[in-house]
Write a structure and sequence with these properties.
319 residues, alpha/beta, Arc Repressor Mutant, subunit A, two-stranded antiparallel ribbon
């Protein structure tokens, strides 16, 4: 990414406070990052929330004319009608090449504008059926954290908006920049879009991130061989129970998750060091440079050298 990247957060009537706060925290202007954040509404002034207070927005829809990224936070009630001018502005920004993203119920604004037709998309699990009913031309994914369809991205409820915004930073600036922001927010630096939402089940099941400690344990041992049996032993579960629980929480098997974690660790080393690819592969548990190149190409569709050229613009220490 070169130059300043204009991020517009479009606050609509009934906007949910956390959904508004997430992109403003992730993308607000700070030293070393190229983002310039603007908050706008249908018109400049005060936008009422659904919580009994209002948001002061200094700009109207004309701000979208200069947007590189437009983010629509969720608003309540989900699917409420929004002005036709919003549809027109979103379509115009997208046609001009802007990236359009939504958090939670904000997916309804993108759907009503026609930007999700023929695409995969998600929203909060409690309105996924409504989105699919209203827009049968959308492939609604009710169980994932976010969906990246290139120029249009959608996320599930509330905290999944953090995952989506960090994913966009990672795509723009690399894993190190996303990790820095995650540390500031005191949040997990990376949950993949395929990770499951925590949704009510017909049979009793624990909710929450019950295997977080095991994943943290694994992240400190990426350079070692890791087996599903070792994961299960650390979590003090039977292998069968562990596999089911891990897949429910992350959307991946343990070995798929480890592979992605190793590639992410390699990305960070490519960005911040001058280590040769063979040494990076050994440090992150991928063995050889040829294996690292293969995994990089399959997961990221670029080679390690192409990735380093794109994301290692800063001065880095010698190994």
């Amino acid at each position: 990414m070169t130059g300043t990247h204009q991020v517009m957060v479009l606050v609509l009537e009934g906007a949910l406070p956390l959904d508004v706060g997430i992109p403003t925290q992730v993308f607000h202007s700070r030293a070393g990052l190229p983002y310039e954040l603007t908050v706008c509404g249908v018109a400049a002034g005060t936008v009422p929330s659904d919580e009994g207070f209002g948001y002061t927005v200094p700009h109207g829809l004309d701000a979208l004319d200069r947007a590189d990224t437009v983010i629509v936070p969720g608003y309540a009630p989900a699917g409420r009608p929004i002005p036709a001018a919003v549809h027109d502005a979103l379509r115009s920004a997208h046609a001009r090449g802007a990236r359009i993203a939504s958090i939670c119920y904000g997916a309804f604004a993108l759907a009503d504008a026609g930007l999700l037709a023929g695409r995969r998309a998600t929203t909060h699990w409690d309105t996924a059926d409504l989105l699919a009913l209203r827009h049968p031309d959308i492939v609604v994914e009710p169980n994932v954290l976010f969906v990246d369809e290139g120029s249009v991205l959608t996320s599930a409820g509330v905290a999944a908006g953090i995952d989506l915004c960090l994913h966009m930073v990672r795509s723009d600036l690399g894993v190190s920049a996303a990790n820095d922001i995650a540390r500031r927010l005191v949040t997990a630096p990376h949950r993949s879009g395929g990770q499951a939402q925590y949704v009510p089940r017909s049979s009793p099941a624990p909710h929450g991130d019950t295997l977080a400690a095991t994943r943290e344990w694994a992240l400190t041992r990426l350079h070692e061989p890791l087996t599903a049996a070792e994961f299960a032993a650390h979590a003090r579960m039977s292998p069968r129970t562990f596999m089911r629980r891990f897949t429910e929480e992350t959307g991946d098997t343990p070995l798929q998750w480890v592979l992605r974690a190793r590639v992410d660790a390699a990305r960070a080393l490519l960005e911040t060091t001058r280590l040769p690819v063979d040494q990076i592969a050994e440090r992150v548990g991928l063995g050889t440079g040829s294996n690292l190149r293969l995994r990089f190409r399959r997961i990221l569709d670029v080679s390690p050298s192409e990735y380093r050229a794109a994301f290692s613009g800063r001065t880095v220490p010698s190994p």
